[in-house]
Amino acid sequence: MDSTPSPSSSSPVDLVSSALEHNISGGAAAADDTSAEGRHDRILGAVSVDWDLRITRCNLDAPVFAGLDAGVGSPFVDLLPPGDVPTVTRRLRQVLETGEPHVARIQRLRQGDGSELVVSLTVLPAAVPREGLTVSLIAMATRLHLYAAETAIGTSLDIGETAQSLAQSLLAWGDVAAVDLDYAVWTGEGITGQGEGRIRLRRAALVPDRAWPEGYVTPGDDLPGDASRLLAQAVRRDDAPQAIVIPDREAVERVFGGPQVLRALVPGDRSAGVACIPLVLDGEPPVVLGVAEVWRRTDRPFRDSELFDLQELVARTAHHVDLARQHQREHTQVLALQRRLLPRTGGDTVEIASVYQPTTPDSAGVGGDWVNSFPLPDGRTALVVGDVVGHGLGAAAAMGQLSMEARALLSAGLAPDEVLERLDETVTLLDDTESGLAAGYSALGSTCCIALYDPVSHQVTLSSAGHLPPVLLSPDGHASQLAVRPHPGLGAEFALREPFGVHTFGTPPGSLLALYTDGLVEEPTVSIDEGIGRLADAVSTVHPWDDLQQAARRLVSAVAPARRRDDVTLLLARMIGYRKGDTTTWRLPARRDAPARARALVSALLRQWGAADDTRDDVLLLVSELVANAVRFATGPVTVRVIRTGSGLLCEVGDTGNGRPRLGRGGLLDEGGRGLRIVHRLTTRWGVRWTDTGKVVWAEVAK
Questions:
Q1: Cα dist. 83→79, 176, 444, 613 in Å?
Q2: 417 with 463: CB under 8 angstroms?
Q3: C-alpha closest to that of 219 among 204, 200, 209, 231
Q4: Cα 21-26-32 angle, rounded to 5 deg
Q5: Are 235 and 184 in contact (CB under 8 A)?
Q6: What stretches in the chain show pLDDT beneath 70?
Q7: H-helix or E-strand containing 90?
Q8: Cis before residue 101, ω within 30 degrees of 0?
Q9: What are phi and psi of 397, to 5 degrees?
Q10: Is 121 helix (H, G, I), strand (E, B) or coil?
């Protein structure tokens, strides 16, 4: 008959105790009950804690727990050394608030005789939330301790957390533990040599968490040069990394010498000894990543077996530190690339603000979110946001290529749907194993949204490839998501491909357009539509007089998930446009007298604007040549538009032709292409953009 208590009759404490006993006590350890080591490895207990962190129930019947004062109603933190109380309290509160367990923390508990018991502490939320927490305690024998420590240290890719986990595990052998890393390791750089002039250590971790004497090096501080050099020399005797033990304060003072070094490295005034163990990365020659230090009172000298255990733990976990270093390096590189893609300015006709918040270094890595905004040469403004599949360097390479390609194509005058067609082909190419940017990486399924703002017509033309719909705030304060036809995204299978839709909508001056990536609105507990709705509600609170950058930060704080699993990206564009008096448009029949009529109309306008004589002469010649070229090579009406910008005058001539004007290298007497050479000499820049009915040749003349 099975004697295991049924779930209905057992408390969380009993269930945890039973489960741990069943899993840990099996096998050879359970078979040999006469072995002290075997009995020690499988000793466990459990404690229930309420929301006030007071013990409500405990199961600590094993003899090894006899010295713990764990009475019902007493604070759980009374079991801890004073220096550990803030950290453990913070962890307990975190589990209560988030519901996510905290697993396998190496922890010391105070016993009644003043000694300390090393346990593996796991904090679990109770089955019923109002019942608080269940804390399991496993008394740690050396073998189990080493295993649990390595498991805990390997759970993070953040170099600071990795070092902190190592220091926390080392605390089982002493009173204070510190981890000092080579500065190149801390920053994610590679280490190829061990030159004397390169020695620089930074404190990466220190436990317990308490107030330390002035001058003592705490996490984030660089060790003084002499201290770094002495530690490096101490652990590299005979040009090989070795652990050393300095048994008492007198010996410490002899080795470290100067008072500044003593203040930086010795954690207190009491006499103490220290074991220094190098973190070594195997290789030829071996590379020292840093130094781990364990301090304890001189009445507890380090035994040879303990030093061996310390060396084994540090050796087992050095590769975790190197993995965190590599991840930190990749994270930093990708983040630098993404920040370079952020918009710098919006120009005179649109105000731009953006927020980019990457995932933490401990996540899968910086994602492929990218956002950009730039003025086009013809006076319009491009707003682009995309989300490349995946994380890390592969996603970063694809993101950089797609972003630069989109900018080049938009600057060349292509429409948003045409740009997405080219990007679709690029994503398919990147998936080719031979020509792809990163082996094993696929960008298929990436999304992108492109919007072009025309400051004269006050309209936005938008195309989307599988991206979430933008949110538009109208001047009357109403915000809603735009109705954008869904698309399968970039690089979809041929059978799924369909033309990219083109959407045009009005954006009167004062309108606000919000482009974003899914990390801003996606949360496991709510639907994506609800997330977008929350964003629209938040956008509706932005007033025309609000500082746009502050408003963007406020929106991200209000909408972004509390626990981010992806990058958060937001681009806000406040439409300003040109005033009515700064732009004039004429529509002329394509006749031989069109250039003369255009000159007369433009001349009157420039006199009204008070343009200088030399500027007026240049603009009249420019307009005459562009209109004459349109009449010669196109059919249908000719549209002439002149815009007064902050830097000069922008002239546009549209026609129904589809030929692309090209500047040739004609001779002095060659009449072919003479008009374009005149245009090239008179303007600061010129170009062509394509429309549904033909093309527009634009040119800018400086004031």
A1: 12, 10, 51, 80
A2: yes
A3: 204
A4: 110
A5: no
A6: 1-43, 129, 140-152, 154-157, 188-198, 234-240, 283-284, 330-347, 360-367, 391-393, 431-441, 493-497, 563-565, 659-675
A7: helix 85-98
A8: no
A9: -65, -45
A10: strand
Which stretches of 81-142 are assigned E, i.e. beta strand? 102-110, 116-125, 133-139
State residue 459's pLDDT score.
93
Question: For residue 308, is it left (φ>0), alpha (ψ between -120 and 50) or beta?
Answer: alpha
CA atoms within 13 A on the CB side of 154: 13
Distance CA 49, CA 67 (A): 19
d(CA 538, CA 556): 9
229-280 residue pLDDT tens: 777 776 666 566 778 888 888 888 887 777 778 888 888 777 788 888 888 8
Q: Where are the beta strands (DSSP E) in 208-316?
A: 244-246, 272-281, 287-297
Report how far Cα 360 is from the mean position of its chain's Cα atoms.
Answer: 6
Beta strands 176-182 and 133-139, pairing class: unpaired
- pLDDT for the residue 37: 38
- In one-letter notation, the amino acid at residue 502 is V
Query: For the segment 42-87, what is each residue's pLDDT rounded down to a tens digit?
Result: 467 888 999 889 999 888 887 778 888 888 899 998 998 887 888 8
Q: Give the per-residue pLDDT at 453.
A: 94
Print burial letters for 368-400: b (CB count within 10 Å at least 16), e (below 16): bbbbbbbbbbbbbbbbbbbbbbbbbbbbbbbbb
128 CB burial (10 A radius; 0-12, 13-18, 19+) = exposed
- Single pTM value for the model: 0.58
Reduce the DSSP state of residue 153 to 3 states and report it.
helix
Which phi and psi (to 5°) does residue 228 adopt? -60, -45
CA-nearest of 497, 498, 532, 537 to 517 is: 532
Per-residue confidence (pLDDT) for residue 550, from 0 to 100 = 93
Q: Where are the alpha helices (DSSP H) in 154-258?
A: 159-170, 183-186, 225-234, 249-256
- What pLDDT is stored for residue 69 in this prediction? 85
3-state secondary structure (DSSP) of residue 342:
coil
- Judge if the upstream peptide bond of residue 375 is cis by omega within 30 degrees of 0: no
Q: For tokens 């007198």, what's the residue?
A: 250
CA 697 to chain centroid:
42
Residues 165 and 153 sit within 8 Å (Cβ to Cβ)? yes
Q: Give the pLDDT of residue 450.
A: 95
